[in-house]
Amino acid sequence: MRVLDKRTRINRRNFLKSSAASVAAAGAVSGGMVSMAAPPAWAEALSVIKPDAAKTLLVMVRDLYPHDRLGDAYYEKALASMDQEAAKDATLAGQLNQGAAELDAAARKLHKTPYTAIPAEADRVAVLKSIEATPFFRKVRGDMVVALYNQPEVWAKLGYEGASAEYGGYIHRGFDDLDWIKDA
After folding, report:
1. Is the CA virtual torsion 109, 111, 79, 133 positive or negative?
2. Per-domain residue ranges for the chain?
């Protein structure tokens, strides 16, 4: 009787496939959290939003508009546009920096830690719900929806093909060609 070896054989192809999957999984897990170490370079490059406030705002915006497909760079670009607006308006600059500090204070009140250090998204969302009536929250939510979704690079990631009015609308341009709409 012949005995078959049922163990997985490691060859070059299997090793590369499993390594790539591990790297992708590690990136997905770490992609949503911002390090508590020194502020990243993009935060240092902002003109009026302070680096600590920028880190808090980045996590806030990722929680407001969560997309696993989007890296931090798209959110950072949206925050940079808000920073440019705040550079022209001292009141807005103060509102953003003060609002981020108040968000951290609300997080400490509920979870005894700064907002960016709360590991569970549901817990961070609970903190956001506690400040959703503030002008700061409404300003960030309103400006970021435009700044984030007005990036053509984001359109490509989300499957939006762009405006179609100049081409006669969507009716004859495959408006229903998205598979996930048909499956819903």
Report:
1. negative
2. 34-150
Q: What single string gives the DSSP state of each residue in 101-128?
A: HHHHHHHHHHHSS-GGG---HHHHHHHH
DSSP calls for 3-62: PP--SPP--HHHHHHHHHHHHHHHHHHHTT---SSSPPHHHHT-SSS-HHHHHHHHHHHH
Tell me: the pLDDT tens digits for 91-137? 999 999 999 999 999 999 999 999 999 999 999 999 999 999 999 99
Q: Is the pTM of this model over 0.90?
A: no
Predicted pLDDT of residue 113:
95
* Residue carrying structure tokens 């897990």: 29
Q: Measure the CA–CA gap between 120 and 16, rounded to whole angstroms.
A: 31
Nearest to 127 by CA among 141, 139, 113: 113
Secondary structure (3-state) at 66: coil
Q: Which residue has the tokens 């670009």?
A: 77
